[in-house]
Amino acid sequence: MIINHPLLGPRDASEFTYLGDASLIDRPDWQAEDAQQQFHDYLYLRDNPAGEHRELWFHEQGDRSWLVVTRNTLTHEITGVELARDVAMQRGRGR
Amino acid sequence: MRYSGFKVLWEGLTGNRGWQPVWREPEPKSSYDIIIVGGGGHGLSTAYYLAREFGLTNIAVLEKGWLGSGNVGRNTTIIRSNYMLPGNEPFYELSMKLWEDLEQDFNYNAMVSQRGIINLYHSDPQRDAFARRGNAMIMAGADAVLLDRAGLEKQCPFLDFDNARFPIKGGLWQPRGGTVRHDAVAWGYARGADIRGVDIIQNCEVTGFLIEDGVCSGVETTRGTIEAKKTAVCVAGSSGRVMAKAGMRLPIESHVLQAFVSEGLKPVIPGVITFGAGHFYVSQSDKGGLVFGGDIDGYNTYAQRGNLPVVEDVCEGGMAIMPMIGRARLLRAWGGVMDMSMDGSPFIDRTHIAGLYFNGGWCYGGFKATPASGFCYAHLLAKDEPHPTATEYRLDRFISGGMIDEKGVGAQPNLH
Fold first, then answer.
1. ipTM over 0.90
2. Alpha carbons B339 and A44: distance in angstroms, whole number
3. Rg, Å, chain A Cα set
4. Is the CB of residue B349 less than 8 Å away from at least one CB of chain A?
């Protein structure tokens, strides 16, 4: 698989390590009433879809940026690559 | 029809005209006591043990494709019970004992071959860890022998003992481990269940569950609605997408594991051998092909094929322990979809929906568990309480703190 890095252009997937579903960006509020249940769901439960999947890849053998890759889990086709930083900012997670 | 040596001889002499289909192809009825979703190894063994052990036969096994078309026909056929943790090892040892009696039990030649499995160790700390694991196995009634270099050289003189990076110091040997003809396991269980009256329905995809007020009363399928008092899902790699139809999210990701077969060779490898410093395992099939594999590819996928970097990694692992393997040519490579759980251990449990049961999360180790998985799932379905060896395989273990993480790597499915 070739991942089209937003800053570096096309790179082989073997340069990256894989973390998992991009929902891991949406860390729950630790002060919420039901924080325990929320953290359980956040850490352990997955949608695990067959089809389009947004997921986190780390460019470990490159510029060490985190990417959100949109990839089809049935065909391995990659349809979108964003910097995870930008995605997190859009979701109001940046500081 | 019973199989026997005499029957084979008789049919051989009379033109093989007396063989019959091994199972019926019934139309689905409108209702059953129990529906099993998934006609792979685990689903069929569940049906078999429900009928044989618990006398329940008003059962249907629904299979989307043809029988045994998933991972039971795609694995590397290894059986072993060399786990360490208390929640796991007694279960896998039960499985090993069931393997040992299997062929007599269901009167079908599954070619169970206890040719032994050796996990190589490459350093002193790894030897100590394997000694500990061997002791845990022996305490659970399994067998384990710690081999030093001399003991290992007697069995496997071809290993690269003096490898500069990962010298081979010895191995943990389980003599009762081995290999089984994987397709025959599915066929044997299917035949055994069918003879006892279980309906095995192929080409019947489950498209939804009948759930009302938190009670599941059957399934919608491509061949109509079928009602059931209990619905038991065991669909391995498809767990995520099937249980999503019941509105459930699981502690599971689907990943692909690749496997490989070389051209046929004269006997060179006596049992199963696994690399202790990378991830590589190999055995030789009765046809002579070297059957081997390694790590999962490491990203979510439902495609039954992988990518080239892992092929290279697996072959490097092989070359590191037995350079002779470099002379063999690769014949075939394929992939199977693994239901990788968050702690590397499986689930055999009820769900929060009454009448709906779940069996899955077998990671890349489901084949060896086939008999015990079916036996324990049947126990749960028949008695509504878990089998004593499978009490830890709960869906709520991540919130209760009862994880069974053999490798200790945490909630990262692609590392298990």
1. yes
2. 14
3. 14
4. no
